[in-house]
Fold:
Amino acid sequence: MDPFVWQCKESHPDFFNAYMTARFPKRRSRKKSGVALTAEFSGTVTDSVTGEPVANATIYVVGQDMVVTTDADGFYLAEELPVGTYTLRCSAPGYVAPAEISSPLLAGESLIFNFILVPVTPVNI
Structure:
């Protein structure tokens, strides 16, 4: 359902916002003087051929002791992260690993990193 909702983001922004708020309720971040000290990233992992979500894909945060797994809808979330630069690597059985994504994450930010995985082509012998 998430890929459909993302496709409707521009044409039906109220629907998109209501769905995302219901699906992923926000937790309160620790704040100091009204400024968030942490950030988060999330996204979806989908199959490049079918467009279907990839469940149980693994998102590795390079250089950190953090691994996040996608749910049945291909969604993942990592929250309450300290600010800094993060490099993400995605993998799933039966798929070619895409390039790593690297980005700074600032206080209070909520960034979205989506991965589109290409299925491994079987070798005919």
Q: What stands out?
A: The helical segments are 2-7, 13-23.
